[in-house]
TrEMBL record:
<dbReference type="GO" id="GO:0030976">
    <property type="term" value="F:thiamine pyrophosphate binding"/>
</dbReference>
<dbReference type="InterPro" id="IPR017663">
    <property type="entry name" value="ABC_2-AEP-bd"/>
</dbReference>
<dbReference type="GO" id="GO:0030288">
    <property type="term" value="C:outer membrane-bounded periplasmic space"/>
</dbReference>
<feature type="signal peptide">
    <location>
        <begin position="1"/>
        <end position="21"/>
    </location>
</feature>
<keyword id="KW-0732">Signal</keyword>
<dbReference type="Pfam" id="PF13343">
    <property type="entry name" value="SBP_bac_6"/>
</dbReference>
<dbReference type="InterPro" id="IPR026045">
    <property type="entry name" value="Ferric-bd"/>
</dbReference>
<dbReference type="GO" id="GO:0015888">
    <property type="term" value="P:thiamine transport"/>
</dbReference>
<dbReference type="GO" id="GO:0030975">
    <property type="term" value="F:thiamine binding"/>
</dbReference>
<protein>
    <submittedName>
        <fullName>Putative 2-aminoethylphosphonate ABC transporter substrate-binding protein</fullName>
    </submittedName>
</protein>
Amino acid sequence: MTKMLALALATSALCAFGAKAEELTVYTALEAEFLERYAAAFNADHPEIRINWVRDSTGVITAKLLAEKNNPQADVVWGLAATSLLVLKAEGMLEPYAAKGLQTVDARYRDADNPPSWVGMDAWAATICFNTVEGAKLGLTAPTSWADLTRPEYTGHIVMPNPASSGTGFLDVSSWLQMMGNDAGWAYMDALHNNIAAYTHSGSKPCKMAAAGEVPIGISFEFRAAKSKADGAPIDIIIPTEGIGWDLEASAIVAGTDAPEAAQTLIDWSITPAAMAQYNEGYAVLAVPGLAKPVKYLPDTLEASLIKNDFEWAANNREAILKEWSTRYDGKSEARN
C-alpha cells in the first residue's frame, strides 16, 4: 500500500472493553491480512487493551515516525524492520525495555543493549517467485542465483520492490552490497536494472504479479511466495545460491507514550509462545528458537541460507544507500497512488 491505512479492528474480545478500555496506537508494516488475527490473539489474553492500527509499507512508516519525532503519535511499533528501528533508536525515539521472557529470544534477533530498545518477532527473507507457465511461454529458464537475473533473456521480465518504500526492497539492496562489496554490488544492480520492468512500492506485489502471470519473475519474500503457491499459483520458490538477505520484524515502545504499562504489556506478549504461533503461520524463522514448525512450500534450509547480516551497517548507511539507489534507478518506479 502507498496511502496510510488506519485500521481500528474490532474483535469479539473487544466486547469486554467498555468505557475503561485502554487504547494503544500501534504503527506497523505487517501484512494487512495479519492485523485482525494478531489483535484477536493478543486480546484473548488482554481484553483490557484495544489496538488501533496504523499500517503502511516499511519506508512510509519509518518516514512517518521520523517526521513525528518531536510530537510522537504512536505508542508502540509492532512489526517493523529492525534496520528501521535502529534508525529510530539512534534518534532517541525508542524506550528501552526488557520484556518478560526476553531470555528466550535468540541474541541475534534482539537489540544488543541491556535493556534492549527493540525485540524481534520473526525473520523475513528474500526469495524469487518464478511463474513456470509464463516462463515456459517466453522460453525462459528458471534462475537459480542472483547472478542469473542479469542474463539478457530476462530483459523486461523482472519486478522488484523499491527500497525507499519497501523493507523487502531495502533488505535486497543492503544484502547485495554486503555480499558483493560496494562497487560490485552497484555494478550488479546496474546490470539487473536493465532487466527490470518496474520497481513496486510493496514487497508483496512482485510475487503477487508473478503469481497472477503479469510478469514471469518477482523478487519478493518467502511468506508471500509460500502463500501464493498455497493458493494455487504456478510459481517456483527460488532461494538464490549465493544466500539471501533478510530482516527482522521487530517491536518497540515509542519514547514518550502516554500508556507505558499497556505498551509494556504488548511488548511482553509479542515474544510469548502464543505470539510466536501466530507469526509461524507465515514465517519459518522465529525470534524464539525451538518453537517454529515447518511452513508448507518453504525449504527446511531457509534459515541456513540467510546471509550474515550487519543490521548496524545497514541502518547507519540507509540514507546514503537510498539516495544512491534513487539517483540510479528511480525512473522505473511505479507511480505512487
